Amino acid sequence: MTILQSENHLHLYGCLTADCLFEQSFDRAKKYEARFQWFISEFEKALGQKIKPETWWNSSNGHDIFRKDFICSDACTFDIFQAKFNLLIALFPPTPDDMTLAKAVFSRHASEGGYKEYRTFLPLYLANHERIIYLERLIDCAQSFETNNYHPRLAISFSRQDTEAWDSYRFLLSFFEKRPQARRFITGIDFCGNERGHPPQNKKQLFKQIQSDRKDGLHSFEILYHVGEMWQDIGLHSAARWCVEAAQMGVDRLGHALALGMNPESLARRTIRENTSEAKRHLQWITINRQALHENNYTIKDYQWFSDRLEQSTTGDYVTWHYDQDLIEHIRTFQSALLSMIKPYDPLVETCPSSNIRIGALGRPEFHPIRQFLDHQIRVTISTDDPGIFDIDLKHEELLVQRQFGLTAEDLIQCEKMARGIFLDRS
Predict the structure, then answer these.
(1) What region does 10 belong to: left with phi over 0, alpha with psi -120 to 50, or beta?
(2) For residue 1, what pLDDT band results from cuts at 50, 70 and 90?
(3) In the predicted model, is pLDDT for residue 247 greater than 70?
(4) Are residues 63 and 106 in the same domain?
(5) Do 48 and 137 have their domain in common?
(6) Which of 10, 243, 272, 395 is the S-S candidate for 260 at Cβ 3.0 to 4.6 Å?
C-alpha cells in the first residue's frame, strides 16, 4: 500500500497526460494556429531541431513520436523542459469558456483520491471582468470534483516580473474581498518559472505587503517560492544563499531548494560565469550574517578563502567559478551552515524527485538533498511537479525515493504528514 497520498507542488497544466494531450492536439493546433507556430519556433530554439507535428497525426507510429517530443524522460536543461511545456501553453490558453484541461486533470485525480494543490497562472492579458469569470469558473470546477476522498486546491502563480506580480496580487485582494467564500480553495501565491536574474531580494517589498495583509486578515495565502533550482549562471553558493534569503524574508514554502543541500560534487570540473555584482552581494550577505554562520562552523577562515577566491576569479563584469575540490568543499561547509541557519524560520521544502533529477542537473539520484533536509529536521514534502510531462505519478516517486534515495517508510510517513497538514490546517 502506498504511503504518499498528498501533493502540494503540482502545476495544473503539467498534470495533463501525454495521451490526453495527443487526443486533442490536432484540433487545437488548427484552432490556435499562431500559438502553435510559436511553440514550434521555441522548440527549435531550445532543442536545435525542427519539430514535425505532421508525423504525430499522419504516421503509423505518430503517437510514439508525439510522446518522444513531449515527455521529458531523461535529463535535460530547464530551457528544453520549458520548450515542451510551451505546447500546453499554446493549445490551452486560459479563457473563461474553456475548462477542458482543468476538468481532465481534476477528473483523473478524483479517481485516485488524495489532497492536491495545483499551481496555475492568472491570465493578466484578459480583461478584468473576463479574468474574474475565469477564476470563478476554475474554482467552481475544482469544487465540483471534490469528494470525501479528493480535495483539490489552487495556488495562483505570479510572474517574477515585479509590475505583473503586484498587479496579480492587487487583483486577488479585490477578487476575494467580494467573494470570501472562495478563499477555501486558494491556498497560496506562487512564484515560479525561470529564476535567472530574479533574486528573492527583488520581492522583499511584495513579500512584506503579503505578510502584513495576511496578519490583518485580508487573506490567508502562503507564499510559495521556487528557488535554488538553477545554477547555470550563478555560483551554487549563491543559489543556496537565495534559499535562506527567501526564508528570512518570510517565504512559507521553498520550491525545490536543491542548491541548499545537494551534493556539490555533482558540479565537479564544471565552470560557470556569475555576474560580479551577484558575487559581491554574496560576500556582503556573508558579512552581515557572519555571526550566525560562525556559530554554525563557517569561520573567518572560510570567509577569507572565499574573498580571496572571488578576487582571483573576477574579470570585469564576471566571476569565473571552476568547481575544483577546494570550491566543492567550501560549498559543502557553507551549505551545512545554511541548513542549520534556516531552521528557526521553519520553511517547508517541496521536493519533486523525478523533476529534480531530470531538469535539476543533479547527475545521480544520491546527489539529491532530501536526505540532508530530513537529517537536519527540515520539513519536507514529496510531489510530482509536472507528472504529465514526466510521465510519472506519486507512486512512482515513492518507489524512487525508497530505492534510490534510501528513504524509509518512517521518512515517507513524515513527508505525507507535512503535505496533508497544509490542507488540514486550513480546513
Answers:
(1) beta
(2) low
(3) yes
(4) no
(5) no
(6) 243
The C-alpha cell that represents 358 in the structure block? 531530470
Same domain, 36 and 99: no
* pLDDT for the residue numbered 317: 96
Taking the C-alpha atoms of residue 27 and residue 42, their distance in angstroms, rounded to an integer, is 21
Q: pTM of the entire structure?
A: 0.95
Which domain does 397 fall in, by range? 7-12+94-266+347-424
199-245 pLDDT, tens per residue? Answer: 999 999 999 999 999 999 999 999 999 999 988 889 999 999 999 99
Q: Which three cell numbers stand for residue 130?
A: 473576463
Domain-ending residue, one of 90, 111, 126: 90
Q: How far apart, in whole angstroms, are the C-alpha atoms of residue 285 and residue 280?
A: 9
Map residue 138 onto helix, strand or coil.
helix
Asked if 286 contacts 303 with a C-beta cutoff of 8 angstroms, the reply is yes
What total of structural domains would you count in the chain? Answer: 2
Tell me, yes or no, whether 22 and 39 share the same domain.
yes
Q: Is the pLDDT of residue 183 over 90?
A: no
**Residue found under cell 525508497:** 402
- Rounded Cα distance between 378 and 346, Å, is 7
CA dihedral 179, 180, 185, 186 (to 10 degrees): 90
CATH number for position 149: 3.20.20.140
